[in-house]
Amino acid sequence: MRQSEVKEFSVEELHEELANHKTKLSDLKMTHVLSPLENTSEIKKIRRSIARIATEITKRELD
After folding, report:
1. pLDDT digits over 9-48, tens only?
2. Domain ranges in the chain?
3. What is the separation, in whole angstroms, between the first and last Cα of the chain?
4. N or C end: fewer C-beta atoms under 10 angstroms in the chain?
5. CA 57 to chain centre
6. 8 Å CB contact between 12 and 51
7. Where is the signal peptide (predicted)?
8. CA dist 50 to 2, 13, 21, Å?
9. Distance between CA atoms of residues 35 and 62, nearest Å
10. CA distance 14 to 10
């Protein structure tokens, strides 16, 4: 998810997306432990999306 996409969401939607991404990351990590993923870069992409969303939430709370 790109930063420009994150900025378009409302705060409630950001919290929902954050929860969804954290769940997806957890699932990917668990799947990777059981059997190697074909595309391990997906974990990196999800982690970075989580960081972008969390940063945007914090930024809006400070404003």
Report:
1. 999 999 999 999 999 999 999 999 999 999 999 999 999 9
2. 3-62
3. 23
4. C
5. 12
6. no
7. none
8. 11, 13, 6
9. 42
10. 6
